[in-house]
Amino acid sequence: MVNLLIQNDFKYAFPSDAVAPGNAVPEGRVDSTWGIIALGYQLRPHMGLAVGVSSMQPALDSRYRYPRFPFFDFSGTNANNYTQFFLSVNGSL
Fold first, then answer.
1. What pLDDT, on the 0 to 100 scale, is given for residue 77?
2. Reported confidence tier of residue 79, pLDDT bands at 50, 70, 90
3. What distance, in Å, lies between the first and last C-alpha atoms of the chain?
4. What is the mean pLDDT of residues 65-92?
5. Dihedral (C-alpha) 66, 69, 75, 80: value to the nearest 10 degrees?
6. Above 80 in pLDDT, residue 47?
7. Are 36 and 54 in contact (CB under 8 A)?
8. How far is residue 49's CA from residue 38's CA, in Å, rounded to a whole number?
9. Of 11, 38, 51, 86, whose CA is between 20 and 30 Å from 4?
10. What are the extents of the domains in the chain?
């Protein structure tokens, strides 16, 4: 299984109050990507295993100029990788 999801979130204005941080941005937009690669194996009719890699991260690099590669950030010395490796066991009755 290979998935690449692109998510665009729009933030709406909110009133500033006593608990809002001083540097809070009252509105804006957040773009993110989520890439998943998984390989599964059915052990028995009701039991299986899967192993994979997943990464949910901002859509653009740290300078907001270029799209990130879906799993690893190879750009520059300030690369920040959000990659996770996983192993899952699933079953059904």
1. 57
2. low
3. 23
4. 77
5. 110
6. yes
7. yes
8. 10
9. 11
10. 2-8+30-91
* Contact (Cβ atoms closer than 8 angstroms) between residue 32 and residue 59: yes
Q: 50, 45, 49: which is closest to 93 by C-alpha?
A: 45
Q: Hey, what are 29's tokens?
A: 């937009």
Q: What's the confidence (pLDDT) of residue 14?
A: 66
Give the C-alpha separation, 39 to 49, whole Å. 8
Look at the block and give the residue holding tokens 């690669």.
Answer: 37
Q: What token pair was written down for 77?
A: 């010395």
What's the length of the chain?
93
β-strands 47-58, 28-44: how paired?
A: antiparallel
pTM for this predicted structure: 0.64
